[in-house]
Amino acid sequence: MRVMMRVHIPVEAGNAAIKDGSLPKTFQQFMETMKPEAAYFVAEGGERTAYFFFDLKDLSSIPPAAEPFFMRLHAAIDITPAMNFDEVRAGVATALKAI
Q1: For the stretch 49-81, what's the b/e string if a residue is b when 16 or more beta carbons lie within 10 angstroms of its beta carbon?
Q2: Could you give the CA distance from residue 90 to residue 85 in angstroms, rounded to a whole number?
Q3: What is the pLDDT of residue 21?
Q4: Are 14 and 72 in contact (CB under 8 A)?
Q5: At what angle do helices 22-34 and 11-20 cross, to 10 degrees?
Q6: pLDDT for residue 99
Q7: Chain centroid to CA 35: how far?
Q8: Rounded CA gap, 54 and 36, in Å?
Q9: How many CB atoms sit inside 10 A of residue 33's CB?
Q10: What is the CATH number of domain 2-98?
Q11: Tell me: the pLDDT tens digits for 22-75?
């Protein structure tokens, strides 16, 4: 299942992680392990935030994806299912049959 994972990093933890080099290493490790189809990095609410879109093989894949961000960056994480347009179109067509 494709999911979107939002990683929201507090300013102080992010600053420390940049200074000690763990922020780029943590992102690099995630990119190599989870192989997201897209990754975006933004400032949201004045804090560093990353959005990753990737295939979640099963629920047991959540801890390996999330824990490095929790442990190293004190991040807040949200994971939610995400659909592309073809999936939305198919889902709407199915929903219309049920009405």
Answers
A1: bbbbebebeeeeeeeebbebbeebbebebebee
A2: 9
A3: 97
A4: no
A5: 90
A6: 86
A7: 11
A8: 4
A9: 13
A10: 3.30.70.1060
A11: 999 999 999 999 999 999 999 999 999 999 999 999 999 999 999 999 999 999
